[in-house]
């Protein structure tokens, strides 16, 4: 994906979040984002042919620790899209933005495959026979 397409993806993502895309630098393939109150980060986008991963970072000492979740996600196996990475960053920064830390949709998706055990109505207690 060329840089302008990535920038378009970032702009669309920003329309659904508190973040603004405040700068793009095509030669460095860098996009800078900002949201009140002082939450900022940038994304370095890989060249389409080189196979590198995206990179997220913040020059703010207050923001940097919150990026660990997104950085771990990027370094895990598999190709990641810019949108997936931006979503992880947004989730990481929720506490700084004053938003609830728990994403209910993700929790429901996580539990969607878990089967609940039905309690047995005719449950026998150990060592006691029913007659």
Quick overview of this protein structure:
By secondary structure, the chain is of the alpha+beta class. The protein is built from 4 helices and 4 strands.
Mean pLDDT: 82
Radius of gyration: 22 Å
Query: Helical segment tally?
Result: 4
Q: What is the spatial order of strands in the main beta sheet?
A: 1-2-3-4
Q: Biggest sheet, open or closed, and with what strands and sense?
A: 4 strands, antiparallel
Domain count, please report it: 1
Question: Can you give keywords for this protein?
Answer:
131 residues; alpha+beta; 4-stranded antiparallel β-sheet; 4 helices; 4 strands
Q: How would you describe the overall organization of this protein?
A:
The protein has 131 residues and is α+β, with helices and mostly antiparallel strands. The chain has one domain. Helices cover 31% and strands 16% of the residues. The protein is built from 4 helices and 4 strands. It has helices at residues 3-14, 68-75, 82-93, 104-111; strands at 20-25, 30-35, 39-44, 55-57. Strands 1-2-3-4 form a 4-stranded antiparallel β-sheet, with helices on one face. Strand 1 (20-25) and strand 2 form a beta hairpin. Helix 1 packs parallel to helix 3 (82-93) and helix 2 runs antiparallel to helix 3 (82-93). The longest helix has 12 residues, at 3-14. The protein is globular, with a radius of gyration of 22 Å. The protein starts with a helix and ends in a 20-residue tail after the last helix. Mean pLDDT is 82; it is low at 106-114.
Describe how the helices and strands are arranged.
Elements: H1 3-14, E1 20-25, E2 30-35, E3 39-44, E4 55-57, H2 68-75, H3 82-93, H4 104-111
Antiparallel strand pairs: 1-2, 2-3, 3-4
Helix pairs in contact: 1-3, 2-3
């Amino acid at each position: 994906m060329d840089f302008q397409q990535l920038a378009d993806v970032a702009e669309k993502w920003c329309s659904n979040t508190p973040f603004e895309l405040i700068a793009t630098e095509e030669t460095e393939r860098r996009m800078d984002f900002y949201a009140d109150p002082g939450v900022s980060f940038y994304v370095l986008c890989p060249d389409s042919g080189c196979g590198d991963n995206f990179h997220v970072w913040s020059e703010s000492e207050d923001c940097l620790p919150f990026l660990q979740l997104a950085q771990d996600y990027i370094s895990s196996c598999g190709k990641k899209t810019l949108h997936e990475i931006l979503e992880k960053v947004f989730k990481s920064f929720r506490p700084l933005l004053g938003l609830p830390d728990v994403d209910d949709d993700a929790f429901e998706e996580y539990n969607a495959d878990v089967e609940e055990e039905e309690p047995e109505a005719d449950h026998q207690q150990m060592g006691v026979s029913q007659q």
